[in-house]
């Protein structure tokens, strides 16, 4: 494929929805796969939706996810500016062309009138649309009224007939023109609508493929009619399947975290999030699930994007992330983990101790924000809670003799490192005759409160003599 140019065109809302991340990612993968360009364009013409700091947040989230753009607000480029709010003169120039060609017209209808026809249509069970009231007034009258009255500019939808969308993912989708509205292109505040600015910019920026969420599919016939009104070449279209909750409702903020920032805050790794999001609606031709960026770029094609909605399985994301945490290099893991210890005010002040604590919990983390809960043991004076399984091990008669023997042995030492602990356990085994699982499970239960979780040797080296003694005594008392 030649000269691929795609764009990610968000309207910044203050946070980045995972659905937006997926759109950005698929555009990015498609561009890189075809050695094309990806452009970031900020669609900020809706003044009522302006949110302070939204663009910075967006740029920051994209960067965190490793998504790089070839052109955009930060990189610049020969098709800028990349903020729609800075392109108003272009939209003005283009709308005038449409008015002159009698393909667009000013509409002076008041909101009251629009509400009234809407109500009448609803009552009569008719499709809700503008009735074309100002479609055919004379250019002279238009000009006169434009000087003193508020107006919008609408597109003259050619009727009747149908408009076909050729979608790479969905095939051919046909829309009846008589159901389409004479859409507003320029609003009464002089700003373009999303539809108008989007089409003009895609043309100006020489976009070859429009890849976006399925919610935009109903807008596409309107866009195609606009391209036709301008006699511009159409880009190709690909509409990505919806993201759904487990109950198949549309993924929304009410059901839980949907913002990239939420996951970042919760200690999800960007590589894990990107890998997970890549699989929401796309899968390779085999069962591979774990991908690096380069792996995704190599394998990604729009042909392998599904039509059906993709379920956003939060548990899978956390499970996935756990795998990524275990795959980090030891050095990288400790560096990242230390940040979390510090954030949670759990820095012990000793590098060795911090590292041992982090190493002990690594296998039990699904995300870095689990650290707080998992490391508790190392900071507590007693075991706050025993798991059910731990309790039943502790209650066994054999376990009691093991604990008592342990206290006698522990008291022979002034300090307790791993070596000494092993020696103690050897003697305990000899003196009590208890061995194997029956020996180790109660010890683990007494010292950690659970029968799984952190590795015993690391726990021993971090806890030290006094705490181990205390925890074993606590188990005897139970
Ligand atoms: N500004 C639109 C959005 O927020 C862009 C849709 C499109 O890609 O055309 O999603």
How would you sum up this structure, described in words?
With 478 residues, the protein is mainly alpha-helical. It is 47% helix and 9% strand. Among the domains are: 87-240, Rossmann fold, CATH 3.40.50; 330-376; 388-477, Arc Repressor Mutant, subunit A (Orthogonal Bundle), CATH 1.10.10.350. Helix 1 packs across helix 10 (293-299) and helix 13 (351-361) packs across helix 19. The model has no long low-confidence stretch (mean pLDDT 93). Bound molecules: glutamic acid (GLU). Glutamic acid is lined by residues 9-11, 43, 194, 198, 212, 216.
Strand order of the largest sheet: 3-4-7
**Gyration radius from CA atoms, angstroms:** 32 Å
Per CATH, what is the topology of the domain at 87-240? Rossmann fold
- Find the CATH superfamily of the domain at 87-240: HUPs
CATH class descriptor name of the domain at 87-240: Alpha Beta
What is the count of DSSP helices, taking H or I runs of 4+ residues?
19
What is the CATH-assigned architecture of the domain at 87-240? 3-Layer(aba) Sandwich
Distance between the termini: 71 Å
| Total number of strands | 11
User: What is the SS-derived class?
Assistant: mainly alpha
* Hetero ligands: glutamic acid
Secondary-structure element pattern, one letter each: EHEHHEHHEEEEHEHEEHHHEHHHHHHHHH
Kindly report the average pLDDT value: 93
Helix content: 40-55%
Shape: elongated
The largest β sheet comes out as: 3 strands, antiparallel
Low confidence ranges: none
Strand content: 5-15%
Précis, in short:
The chain is mainly alpha-helical and 478 residues long.
């Amino acid at each position: 494929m030649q000269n691929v140019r795609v764009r990610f065109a968000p309207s910044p809302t203050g946070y980045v929805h995972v659905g937006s991340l997926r759109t950005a990612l698929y555009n990015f993968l498609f561009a890189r796969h075809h050695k094309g360009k990806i452009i970031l364009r900020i669609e900020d013409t809706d003044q009522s939706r302006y949110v302070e700091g939204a663009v910075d947040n967006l740029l920051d989230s994209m960067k965190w996810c490793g998504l790089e753009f070839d052109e955009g607000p930060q990189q610049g480029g020969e098709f800028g500016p990349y903020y729609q709010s800075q392109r108003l003169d272009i939209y003005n120039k283009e709308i005038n062309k449409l008015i002159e060609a009698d393909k667009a017209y000013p509409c002076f209808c008041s909101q009251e009138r629009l509400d009234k026809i809407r109500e009448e249509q609803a009552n009569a069970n008719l499709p809700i649309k503008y009735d074309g009231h100002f479609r055919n007034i004379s250019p002279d009258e238009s000009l006169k009224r434009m000087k003193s009255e508020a107006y919008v500019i609408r597109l003259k939808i050619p009727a009747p007939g149908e408009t076909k969308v050729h979608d790479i993912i969905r095939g051919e989708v046909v829309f009846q023109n008589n159901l389409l509205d004479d859409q507003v292109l320029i609003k009464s505040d002089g700003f373009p609508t999303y539809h108008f600015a989007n089409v003009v910019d895609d043309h100006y920026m020489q976009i070859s493929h429009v890849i976006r969420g399925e919610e935009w599919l109903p807008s596409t016939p309107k866009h195609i009619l606009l391209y036709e009104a301008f006699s511009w070449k159409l880009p190709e279209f690909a509409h990505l399947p919806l993201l759904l909750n487990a109950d198949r409702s549309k993924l929304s903020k009410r059901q839980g975290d949907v913002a990239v920032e939420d996951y970042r805050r919760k200690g999800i790794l960007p590589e894990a999030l990107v890998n997970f999001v890549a699989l929401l609606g796309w899968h390779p031709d085999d069962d591979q699930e774990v991908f690096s960026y380069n792996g995704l770029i190599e394998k990604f094609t729009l042909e392998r994007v599904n039509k059906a909605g993709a379920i956003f399985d939060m548990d899978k994301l956390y499970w996935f992330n756990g795998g990524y945490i275990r795959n980090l290099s030891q050095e990288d893991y400790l560096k990242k983990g230390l940040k979390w210890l510090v954030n949670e005010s759990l820095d012990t002040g000793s590098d060795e101790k911090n590292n041992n604590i982090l190493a002990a919990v690594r296998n039990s983390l699904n995300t870095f924000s689990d650290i707080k809960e998992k490391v508790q043991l190392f900071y507590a004076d007693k075991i706050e809670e025993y798991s059910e399984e731990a309790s039943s091990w502790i209650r066994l008669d054999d376990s009691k003799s093991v604990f008592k023997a342990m206290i006698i042995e522990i008291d022979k030492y002034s300090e307790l490192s791993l070596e000494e602990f092993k020696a103690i356990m050897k003697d305990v085994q000899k003196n009590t005759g208890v061995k194997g699982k029956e020996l180790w499970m109660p010890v683990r239960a007494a010292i950690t409160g659970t029968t799984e979780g952190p590795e015993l040797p690391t726990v021993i080296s971090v806890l030290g003599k006094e705490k181990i003694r205390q925890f074993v005594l606590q188990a005897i008392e139970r």
